[in-house]
Design brief:
about 70% helix, mainly alpha
Length: about 180
């Protein structure tokens, strides 16, 4: 997969692009067209969800720091925060199932009269809980994959942020060499 084109700011910082001034101007104009200049706002569902809203505020502050807090990203950031909250909820649900399974095992092992709960009933209950744990784990993994995909696309991972940084530092001309070369 080819690397994505460098943004205008990176090209001008590197100061060594093979693009003409007209191409650079066009690139800058195109990138500015992708920015609305408006602020990112939390949707109603995000504001109503304590975990999602806390994550929204955290991400918004980070995006402001790197000057990427634009309304064009509003939907994806809101969606990300809701998915994040759903993932946290699912992890808690899985922990509840695990605790219930532990309680069931403890209860069954302490029964003096095993006739209070038949072995078949115990096996069915424990199997159902184990299936619930496994199913919840699968759903958590799917959500985490979606979150990672969003992070990769929106400069929320180190790798995606590094793609927008110039690869080589600007070369500074040595004034003495410049004078000797007649420049």
């Amino acid at each position: 997969m080819p690397t994505p084109p460098k943004p205008f700011t990176v090209l001008t910082t590197e100061n060594k692009s093979h693009r003409t001034k007209a191409e650079l101007k066009l690139r800058k104009k195109g990138e500015e067209a992708l920015s609305t200049g408006g602020p990112i706002k939390a949707k109603k569902e995000v504001k109503e969800n304590k975990i999602a809203y806390k994550e929204f505020k955290r991400i918004l502050n980070l995006l402001k720091e790197i000057k990427k807090a634009d309304a064009i990203y509003e939907n994806v950031i809101n969606r990300y925060c809701l998915m994040y909250a759903e993932t946290i909820s699912m992890v808690k649900q899985r922990e509840t199932f695990t605790r219930r399974l532990d309680q069931l095992e403890e209860y069954y092992s302490k029964l003096e009269n095993q006739e209070d709960m038949e072995f078949k009933e115990y096996i069915k209950l424990s199997t159902d809980l184990e299936k619930s744990i496994i199913e919840t784990d699968k759903q958590i993994q799917v959500k985490r994959k979606m979150l990672l995909d969003i992070e990769k696309e929106n400069v929320m991972t180190i790798a995606s942020a590094l793609r927008s940084i110039p690869k080589k530092p600007e070369e500074q001309d040595n004034p003495l060499l410049k004078a000797l070369r007649g420049g």
